[in-house]
Design a protein that fits this description.
Layout lengths: L11 H12 L4 E2 L6 E2 L2 H12 L4 E2 L6 E2 L2 H12 L4 E2 L6 E2 L2 H12 L4 E2 L6 E2 L2 H12 L4 E2 L6 E2 L2 H12 L4 E2 L9 E2 L2 H12 L4 E2 L6 E2 L2 H12 L4 E2 L6 E2 L2 H12 L6 E2 L6 E2 L2 H12 L2
InterPro entries: Znf_C2H2_sf, Znf_C2H2_type
Family: Belongs to the krueppel C2H2-type zinc-finger protein family.
Organism: Astatotilapia calliptera
Length: 282
């Protein structure tokens, strides 16, 4: 019996090998990447990763693995069984390792920091994935529209847009009822109804519900207007504003913003709002 963790073994040699975990000694080192292990067997398994051979394939999704154990662990995802539950928030996981990673979120500790933008992460893997944004490399490409992404997860989320399915509906009020493809999109949208605007511009004090809107707003203060109309030469801070502006030249009014007092129509919602001020003058 191990006097440190209470685990029992049939043979003395197995106990001795096990105790290397507690000692922190890792005498077996990979000559390809330098990673060290307490046991020779773990080093041997690790070295298979460098071989690139993935002999074990999942018959449900086709994903391949180097080790049989990794395939077995992966198959728990398809079973729907999630025996590992977080005692802080109740979220369940198929794998013990996933629960362990998740619990770091509750600790609030973010030890891994990006040396390019300063953003911090709880997991080393999350930092590594984040750094792809700075590299400019976008290896994951949508085969429907050609848009590319730095992360596989972002491509997967994007592809839901093409499905047209919007299962997340806003139930805040009868007037809204807006639906979203992603749960995160609904959550972000609901900030509008809450009235909470946590993102404030430190130059003019204007507040926003979304960080993205604050970022766009701050471009106004920069004075930079990189988007130019090729018809009249007018410059804009944002590409969206240029796109909306071009509707004036086309004469096309796709959104049909109509004044309910006089019936006049406008290409832009902002133009309608300004027009309505005429009717408000006493």
């Amino acid at each position: 019996i191990c006097d440190l963790c209470g685990k029992s073994f049939t043979q003395a040699g197995a106990l001795k090998t096990h105790q290397l975990i507690h000692s922190g000694v890792k005498p077996y080192s990979c000559d390809l990447c330098g990673k060290s292990f307490a046991w020779a067997g773990n080093l041997k398994k690790h070295q298979l990763i460098h071989s690139g051979v993935k002999s074990y394939s999942c018959d449900l999704c086709g994903k391949s693995f180097t080790l049989a154990g990794a395939l077995k662990t992966h198959q728990l995802i398809h079973s729907g069984v999630k025996p590992y539950s977080c005692d802080l928030c109740g979220k369940s996981f198929a794998r013990a390792g996933d629960l362990k990673k998740h619990q770091l979120i509750h600790s609030g500790v973010k030890s891994y920091s990006c040396d390019l933008c300063g953003k911090s992460f709880t997991l080393a893997g999350a930092l590594k994935t984040h750094q792809l944004i700075h590299s400019g490399v976008k290896p994951y490409r949508c085969d429907l529209c050609g848009k590319s992404f730095a992360r596989a997860g972002d491509l997967k989320k994007h592809q839901l847009i093409h499905s047209g399915v919007k299962p997340y509906s806003c139930d805040f009020c009868d007037l809204c009822g807006k639906s979203f493809t992603l749960a995160g999109g609904l959550k972000t949208h609901q900030l509008i109804h809450s009235g909470v605007k946590p993102y404030m511009c430190d130059l003019c004090g204007k507040s926003f519900a979304w960080a993205g809107d604050l970022k766009k707003h701050q471009l106004i203060h920069s004075g930079v207007k990189p988007y130019s109309c090729d018809l009249c030469g007018k410059w804009f801070t944002q590409a969206e504003n240029l796109k909306t502006h071009k509707l004036i030249h086309s004469g096309f009014k796709p959104y049909t913003y109509s004044c309910d007092l006089c019936g006049k129509t406008f290409a832009r919602a902002g133009a309608l709002k300004k027009h309505q001020l005429i009717h408000s003058v006493v």
